[in-house]
């Protein structure tokens, strides 16, 4: 029999939850679960334990909490434990946790530590061997990351200064005072927008972060505040709504959110609702070859969760076009993680059934980097990568609009212009190009391979040190 402490990574949203159990004691806990709870239940069955505790380090903004879902799946054996520090309130049944509260799971003891800054109620959990005084680890939620820290600006401008000061205090008075050998287990890895430039590793140590994390080395609030503000990535559009949803308590299902199989005729009927969003999850080349007019192309990769969160309202009715019908479970899981559960159905038989029914098909032209280079001046290159990617080099004469902000800035583009849309490798380019098509742009091309292909072809590159940003 052994004690288990295992990180569980959800790719795409780059979120890490933690499974804790002691086989000899028979009980298990989870910290910061995502909604697709099967992976946790499989762990419990593997070790022959039952969930008794479900912990949340804070009210999450970037993904849908799975606490209520897991509790429902456990049929009442588990209770949800949430922070009531910072006057946090919730609209569901919970057990309150305060600074200093302790929980034991066989050989391990967890102690709650209030670490505000990312949010007012934020808790971290110190990990101890039950018979020792010094902690061996700390679960830091969204307060301390590998090479980074949680952002303090998610509650609006009026709260940002207050939370920045709280985060500075947390860094100096909590984390910097822990022993160097304490292992740090954060809630996010590289790819999350919950902090700037989060490192690739799933865990680190306090000593390593003291030496390499610039935010732990700053001794004045002025320096800290400037660094936090200068490094903050754009706030994804779904974060404010997700935070409210998680405080209210997401709807629970006994399984994946239900999705009906629709014939071509029924699919067309659902399309008549002007609020309905069609998400086509096929590869960009398949989408370019032929798709249903008005569809978004967000390909079936883990990052689908993030871009659906950015671009599609969590309450919007959704129709799905899949690569294959067997892909339904994976696609629904990825959408569920960022709060999308209002599914009206999926097209049975995918695009093959649509084509064979003689329905109209829209194409999205694909332009190679060589064609773009040879026809210089005929197309306006549109770069939809993040600011830091753009600053490291871009296609000559390109205009830059980050994909997450394209919907808000689309009115600044000339619909009569010919656009060649690119990103790093083509995935985001196809999303952006489909968004432009959906909004009435007729002369849109996406660039397969995008900037990677441009560089591989040894074509000329500009950067900000040479030219003014367009």
Automatic annotation (TrEMBL):
InterPro entries the UniProt entry points to: Metallo-B-lactamas (IPR001279), Mito_Persulfide_Diox (IPR051682), POD-like_MBL-fold (IPR044528), Rhodanese-like_dom (IPR001763), Rhodanese-like_dom_sf (IPR036873), RibonucZ/Hydroxyglut_hydro (IPR036866)
CDD domains for the chain: POD-like_MBL-fold, RHOD
Ranges of residues in domain Rhodanese: 272-363, 375-463
Keywords: Metal-binding
Transmembrane helix listed as a keyword: no
Highest taxon of the lineage: Bacteria
The protein's name in its UniProt record: Rhodanese domain-containing protein
Organism: Christiangramia forsetii
Upper classification of the organism: Bacteria, Pseudomonadati, Bacteroidota, Flavobacteriia, Flavobacteriales
